[in-house]
Amino acid sequence: MSGHAANEANGDVYQVGRVDARIARVLGLPAAERTVWLHPHTIAHIVARRAVTAGEAGFVLHYLPLTIHRPDIVGIETRDARRFRFVKFLTSERRHLHVSLKLVSVGSVEGRANELWVSSAFPLGRRSLTRLLRRENLHTVEWEAER
User: Fold this and answer.
1) Cα distance between the two ends of the chain
2) How far apart are CA 117 and CA 129, in angstroms?
């Protein structure tokens, strides 16, 4: 994974980023629930099931933090309000990355009632993106140019 976010090991899990405050407001996420976690089993799932080649697995894991922090498209899944979609067009790679996050109940741990976990991530083709845009209620994010 790239250095776009604090990739700190926490036992057997990794902190891969934090949802930007603006995106959290669009999705209705409280400030305490913006940190995103990744379990090694999810990494194995991404490599084994979602990436066709080792290069695609590397692409997914490298750009995962950036897609979480600065997505181009976000939304709440229509079938499950605990699941969120983040999509980013990576200009240098000329392709999209799709990241699915799930809000998981943890009771009341350190003032948090829920945690965000990566449930899946994969390269997204143009046709799949078109279907996703038709099927889900997604929001385009306009980022100001960084100075």
Assistant:
1) 25
2) 22
